[in-house]
Write the structure tokens for this entry.
Amino acid sequence: MEKNKKSFSLADYSKYMCLVSVVLVFGVFSIMIPNFTGAYSLQNMMGEAAPLLLMAGGLSFVIYTGGIDLGAGAMVSCTCAITGIYVAKIGNAIIPLMILVGVVMGAINGLIVTKLKLPSFIVTLCTTNFWSYVALNLCPDGSVIIPMNKRALARWASSKAAGIPVLFLIAIAGVFVLYIFQQYTVYGKSIFAVGANVRSARLAGVHTNSAQISAFIACGIMSTLAGALYAYKLKSAVPTVGDSLTLTAIASVALGGTSMAGGRGSVLRTMIGVITITGVTSGLNMMGVNPLWKNIVIGIILIIAVCLNSDTKGRDLIIK
């Protein structure tokens, strides 16, 4: 009697795909663009990747639960607007204040999802409009620059340590904190349990509602911190800066091997996904490709990444 042979599936090797993709992207663009991996180019890419690292890292936790937060980009825009306007009055104390705002934003999403038992994509699609309204209401005439006599408050955001942008170091520190939360805390493990099987997790004594709320709070904190960093980086309040970032962040998470059905993933692999996406967008910019093509390319990458990470038995088809 012939032994059953396990069929080959690319999904089984998805955790390695993020490493393959980053090597492939940087290898191809290095051949096509001579200065692609030069010091100046790499510093620019690290500066570009910093806010996205925070945003995608936080969004990963919501996706671990099998949910989604479509309002992450709007939260970035909202807090970029708030930070850019009020940093001149409050100073750098605006950053911890924005973290508290992120806690509130995330808690609102999490409470509505868990208490009203509504799908997360519906809830966050609705709250997106509110965050966007706040941002546009604060800046009705478009971007608002930080006054010249207050620019010293934001000077540190453009500085470097050992040739590495400070913003990128802050983002790496944020990812490290998320990794500790993911691997070594009860809530971190509970988030994965909810994504794997919410009913089994509940029967095992896991506080599933608390786990989901904590995931949304993590996303809120990281998104609002990313918005604050954008304000410091751009030295202005830009009410639409995060509007196009949600797709990019989701693509980064998927490219990092995280299952869109939840229960599997790593914030460290999300970081590799962000670096890959940043490499793609930077390479396309340096080649002078029409900006409209960037979203098309990112959309294609997202489709491929989801296909590679999908459970072919059908579990990944469930939308929570």
About this structure: DSSP finds twelve helices and four strands in the chain. Residues 253 and 270 are 5 Å apart (CA to CA). Strands lie at 144-145, 160-161, 164-165, 236-237.
